Batch of 2 targets.
Target 1
Amino acid sequence: MIANDVARWGLTALLLAASLFAVFRASRRSPPATRVAYGLHAAMLAAMAAMLVPGVRWPALPQTMVFGLAAWWFVLRAVSRRPRPLAVQNITAAGPWHGRREGEASRGSLLYNALTMAAMAYMLAVMDLRGTHGTPAAPTAAGLADLAAHHGGSSARPSPAGSLPAALPEWTSLSAPVLAVAFGAAGAVWGVLLLRRARRGNRTGSGAPFLELVSSVSMAVMFAALAV
């Protein structure tokens, strides 16, 4: 996906480090929904790292289903979330990820996480259709002849070479740049948030924005690579 070896392995190492951090946060004592959210982030970051390693290819369909269901889980959490009275809110933990109560994600962050999981499922599907590291190879003339002979149809004409592979980048090339720009902008927002917290000396709840920053920047880079 990424031609530059230094950039590819650097991003892979960053994703693996962030995935291990998410596993650590998921293992800590916290509400079940928070632990599940960290676990899903760990799985997504690990899957993105595996996509960058040459020669490593896991079945795309199970992963697509898992992250698709994860997107719906975040949507259901956002829909079922109810605002709490101001008297019981912890305003010191306020932020775009934790919301007004510590350990409780805000509705906006839940919807953003749903979009991230859906984008991950979409990326897996696109990479599987394109053959992970490029468009699917065009069928050879011998293979087409064998196919025609198998069906017994001498009148069956092979489609033009590369007609199907050429159709795949046509629709993926339209969405990949848009998603790359969108996740790049999201990464900028998370980066500004972390800088503000660093200047104020407030590191409480900085783990989740860090994971969001890594995932959004990685998504932007990988979608930009798909658009090329």
Target 2
Amino acid sequence: MLLYPSGVDVSSSALRFLSTRLQARRRALGTRWRRLNAGRQALLTLAHLRNGHTYAQLAAGFGVGTTTAYRYVTEAVELLAALAPTLAEAVRAASMKAYLILDGTLLPIDRIAADRPFYSGKHKKHGMNVQLIADPKGRLVWASPALPGAVHDVRAAREHGIVDALAEAGINCWADKGYQGVGGTVRTPYRGRWNSLSTGQQAVNRSHAKIRALVEPAVATLKSWRLLCRLRCSTTRITSLVQAVLSLHLASRN
């Protein structure tokens, strides 16, 4: 196998954050020696999440076996996922914001046409539905567990308890037409053809669109981790990967 140098475009604070947590875990487990130290294990994990490198590529680059690379990544991902904020914690932390923005995104997966529960009719591809909450500056605040792509955004928001959590906290939330009728404090635009809306309704929809567009940087933040752009793992692992990325993002932002 030919080897070549590669870079990982993540902040040094994310590397330090993960390295510190891995070191603490090793001390708690009483680990005496491993092939890679905590810093190298953290870098290996970041290369997997950010660049989407396979376990074989990681193993060759870090001088370990493929099984070891898989084990190191799995350990780090589970550790990070456990540190991700819950919905209640995220809403509480954002309670002083003027408003929040809710949107859903599809994380593509390599499934075949027979896997109907994972097929999104909206996006015309197989994937997993993840709900995102962003603040007024477009920063990612929270990401939900992953549901099959066939699940509609309204149903996903209700299943995760997003609508109730926002209503209880009294936080106004902007969302697109896909959340029509979800209720609570979620605000959606007027529905109907543009020429069928009144002048006032058109003005409201224009204002609503400008606010809701601020969620796009949050979506881009999640998908800048290239592993999430084409997932080839078991669908049962995708929630942990999303939560791990959320933890890293929040840690590097603070």
